[in-house]
Amino acid sequence: MYVSARADYALRAMLAVADVTGSPGRTGGGELVKAASLAESQQIPHSFLQGILLDLRRADLLHSHRGTDGGYALARPADEISVGDVLRAVGGTLTSVRGLPADSAGYHGVATGLRDVWLAVHGAIALVVDRTTLADLLADRVTPH
């Protein structure tokens, strides 16, 4: 699995929105996060972030509200959004072989067993990222003393 800058930025943005808009496991009381604020707080190029936010909206992970008081909020509670949801929203498949989904890999001859290896790798990654939610990551934070 390769974690692209896009995937890393998307997760950081989603965690920042989850942190501002409500405590882990529920959406907040109407607070919205502006894209410019996300870009600054997470050190993400604003123009790059715009495309990521669009993908997250299309995947129904974020809601956006227009206007001067507008911004972004989670579409579901943080405990219902997994790392896997975010990764798939911005990158498609979790694992790829030569640029194709792992389940598309086909081999013959001595390499036939490789497909099973790639599918097992995909399954192990999916198990971890689909079981880990935004709320889990926010709860695991170490708070300074």
TrEMBL record:
The answer, when asked if DNA-binding is one of the entry's keywords, is yes
Cellular component GO terms held in the UniProt record: cytosol
Q: Does the keyword Mitochondrion apply?
A: no
Q: Mention one GO molecular function.
A: DNA-binding transcription factor activity
SUPFAM superfamilies in the cross-refs: Winged helix' DNA-binding domain (SSF46785)
Write the record's keywords in alphabetical order, separated by commas: DNA-binding
Pfam families named in the record: Rrf2 (PF02082)
Q: What is this protein called?
A: Rrf2 family transcriptional regulator
Originating species: Micromonospora sp. CCTCC AA 2012012
